[in-house]
Amino acid sequence: MSAVGIFEIEKIKRRIRACDYLVVAQLFLQDNFLLKRPLEFSDIKPRLLGHWGTCHGINVVYANLKARYGEDSNFSFILGPGHGFPALNANLFLDGELEEKDIERLCRNFSWPDGFPSHASPLTPGVITEGGELGYALANAYGLVLGHPEKTVAVLIGDGELETATAIDSLNLRNLLDGEKNGKVLPILHLNGYKISGPTIYARKSERELNELIRGFGFEPIWIDGENTDEFQEALRTETEAPFYIFRNEKGYGGPNRHHEAHQIPLKNPASDKKELDDLEKWLRRYNFDELFDGKGFRI
């Protein structure tokens, strides 16, 4: 039995597909954004800058939180892995929260002077931290609910980020700020296994070790399979006083490279290498974006 209806589950999956496509388009394309014709070398940006590896996971989390809390004006989301900004940018664009109203402007302005930076930026609507200095996302989440019992804040924490002293020490804030005078924080650990090109400590721990660590800070660990939408929704509806979600998915999922090879730009030379150009087109077409966007609006 699904935590939500089949229609809602499919809607979440379609949103993830749409945002994954928009991420890849932002990273690579300066033209032919809807693939109305085969890709050409001239369609590729002259300089490729940004991060793909964490973006699918961010889109999964955002879509599921949107389905669960989308109508709650007292709900906020904080993104720890700010280098995955094209994913956040894609979601804000899909929801009509950016000045950019067409995909061409969204893609051309990503990581471009006077456009969007490659990392999360306070210049973007709703963004309160830069996100590049990893470690402080959880502390910011607790600061946001301080003195606001009506608020709920979900915070996505990278597994490399949790290795920082700031992040791990911020877990103690649950004991300091728990109570009726403050709101609720929902930590979500993005366990994708790698920080840049190296393995993360927490992804190499056993489930038992990680569970005991989290319980030691007073949280209840709840594991989520990153590609199981129904499981994600069930987890968000689990009644517990202090949940700590451990969201496990593969870094670079959906792209041509996985794990440590997917951290930044997984295809380095699609503007000059025909095989890489073909790989990029196959990657983009796998999302069947034309089923989700009719040229004027989204059918999500």
Structure description:
The protein has a single domain (6-290), classed as Thiamin diphosphate (ThDP)-binding fold, Pyr/PP domains (Rossmann fold, 3-Layer(aba) Sandwich), CATH 3.40.50.970. Helix content is 35%, strand content 12%. The protein is built from ten helices and seven strands. It has helices at residues 6-28, 55-69, 85-94, 103-108, 137-145, 165-170, 173-177, 207-216, 229-236, 274-285, and strands at 75-79, 152-158, 184-191, 194-195, 198-199, 220-225, 243-248. It has a five-stranded parallel beta sheet with strand order 1-2-3-7-6, with helices on both faces. A two-stranded antiparallel sheet has the order 4-5. The chain starts with 5 loop residues before the first helix and ends in a 15-residue tail after the last helix. The model has no long low-confidence stretch (mean pLDDT 93).
Features:
300 residues; Rossmann fold; five-stranded parallel β-sheet; two-stranded antiparallel ribbon; 10 helices
CATH-level-2 architecture: 3-Layer(aba) Sandwich
The CATH topology is given as: Rossmann fold
Look at the helices and sheets and give the structural class: alpha/beta
Total helical elements: 10
Find the count of extended strands (DSSP E, 2+ residues): 7
Q: Strand portion, in percent?
A: 5-15%
Radius of gyration: 19 Å
Low-confidence stretches: none
- Main sheet attributes: strand count, strand direction, barrel closure: 5 strands, parallel
Write down the secondary-structure element order.
Answer: HHEHHHEHHEEEHEHEH
Briefly, what CATH class?
A: Alpha Beta
User: Which percent range fits the helix content?
Assistant: 25-40%
Q: Give the domain tally.
A: 1
* Straight-line N-to-C gap: 23 Å
CATH superfamily: Thiamin diphosphate (ThDP)-binding fold, Pyr/PP domains
Spatial sequence of strands, sheet with the most strands: 1-2-3-7-6
Compute the average pLDDT.
93
Taken from the alpha-carbon principal axes, the silhouette is globular
